[in-house]
Write a structure and sequence with these properties.
Two copies of one chain form a homodimer. Chain A is an alpha/beta fold. Chain A has a single domain, classed as 3-Layer(aba) Sandwich (Stationary-phase Survival Protein Sure Homolog, Chain: A), CATH 3.40.1210. Chain A contains eight helices and 13 strands. Chain A has a nine-stranded mixed β-sheet with strand order 3-4-2-1-5-6-7-13-8, sandwiched between helices. A two-stranded antiparallel sheet of chain A has the order 9-12. The first copy, chain A, has a two-stranded antiparallel ribbon with strand order 10-11. In chain A, helix 2 packs across helix 6 and helix 3 packs across helix 5. The relative contact order of chain A is 0.14. At the A-B interface, helix 3, helix 4, helix 5, strand 11 and strand 13 of A face helix 3, helix 4, helix 5, strand 11 and strand 13 of B.
């Protein structure tokens, strides 16, 4: 029994919508029998925080009771801070896997770069912890997570069952907003070149001073049928393997020859 | 004369240390005769903000006079917000090039991911604006920018002189902390796998409650002689071409065959 307990996988869970979001509860519940689940997540929404870390001021962290039977900590930090704090101050070791989400809203295409959910997963993979970020294409707090839970479970089980997992494995999983019976399965994809075209909404405050709300229209510039945007549009769950080496090797070769 | 003016390059400058940092002044002064320089930068330090954007509250922006003869705007946003605001609300067009920095401190290796300086440059490249981020390996506000200014000028001139610039070109340039006469030239590199090993500094506030300062030790796990860390250690100015397609194509192929 002791031996069996020792072999149990430690599953770290975080997100960017905050510890009380339905998405993280659904994620924890979907995998809680696959290992020992520990949640370390922000105490407030941190959407769009990208790979931000907190260096100008200190962090707070406290244990909270929000999910029955699941050890849960909330921090004042960003999603990336949460992963760092979890390893150094909560688990005192690296978990076997880090899961992030389930995000309330899409993180496909270029959104991977702005997403706190995915940045937490990327941070884990930098730390040699295999990781998966999950996002549902539904911003509503009342979203239906039935399909998400099914595929979360399937994908986490597949990764945990791998004989040799790439320690830097990082997957960006997006789930279409559709009834579970309409989901067609999983598709391994590349990141689409699709993004928001900004158009700040300019307003005036009661004293007449200008202020700006970030807004924009989503546009897909990528006609490929091997992208996450294509897969999601066709009711597939998209899985994009993500890396943290940002070197553009094609451009590197060109610059070595021509530039310098 | 009018025609000549129209052909002048528009150079957008931003940073993450804030509009009053010596680094951005040195950057603007180093290139101000190469085109029309417009500065749109944060009104306060935004180091470590990564690719964060502001979506939970609105932004403010105002014109300020901090650099003689250079149009300058400060915003309440992140470095990435600054690029978006500059294009949509200040320039009302895409600049010919976007420069970010000069950062007070290194942005080599994995730091590219946490860096507000580099995230601003990456944002520009997503928007099809060629961009360069500059960082000096000296955190001091009294740093000597002589070598930085020389190489900033040389690299910006090279990019502006290119017959056909990749519209997504993004360069991560780091400059060693050394007297200009000891700098050996430019080296095109890949991003090293080198990173901070976290070790939060745990303290107690006057009421006895715990808080944590992010700290850590920098470690280089990469023995390659083609990395930015190697180049900088050997007194070369490192130039890493950066991409925003995070797809791990090697892992994608493996997963297509084995995972699903």
């Amino acid at each position: 029994m002791t031996k069996q307990k020792k072999q149990q996988s430690i599953i770290l869970i975080t997100n960017d919508d905050g510890v009380t979001a339905p998405g993280i509860r659904n994620l924890a519940e979907a995998v809680k029998d696959l290992g020992k689940v520990v949640v370390v997540a922000p105490d407030k929404p941190q959407s769009g925080m990208g790979h931000a870390i907190t260096i100008g001021f200190p962090l707070r962290m406290q244990q909270v009771h929000v999910m029955e039977g699941i050890e849960t900590w909330q921090t004042t930090g960003t999603p990336v801070d949460c992963v760092k704090l979890a390893v150094d101050k909560v688990l005192h070791r690296k978990p076997d896997i880090c899961l992030s989400g389930i995000n309330h809203g899409a993180n496909h295409s270029i959104n991977v770069i702005y997403s706190g959910t995915m940045s937490a997963a990327i941070e884990a993979s930098i730390e040699s912890i295999p990781s998966i970020g999950f996002s549902l294409l539904d911003y509503s707090m009342e979203a239906d997570f039935t399909g998400s839970r099914k595929y979360v479970r399937e994908i986490v089980q597949k990764v945990l069952a791998m004989k040799k997992v790439d320690k830097h494995l990082c997957l960006n999983v997006n789930i279409p907003k559709a009834p579970v019976e309409l989901l067609k399965g999983i598709k391994v994809c590349r990141q689409a070149y699709a993004k928001y075209e900004e158009d700040f909404d300019e307003r005036r405050d009661p004293t007449g001073k200008k202020y700006y709300w970030l807004t924009g229209e989503f546009k897909n510039f990528d006609k490929g049928r091997d992208t996450d945007v294509w897969a999601l549009k066709n009711n597939y769950v998209s899985v994009v393997p993500v890396q943290f080496d940002l070197t553009n090797y094609v451009l590197k070769k060109q610059l070595e020859q021509k530039f310098l």
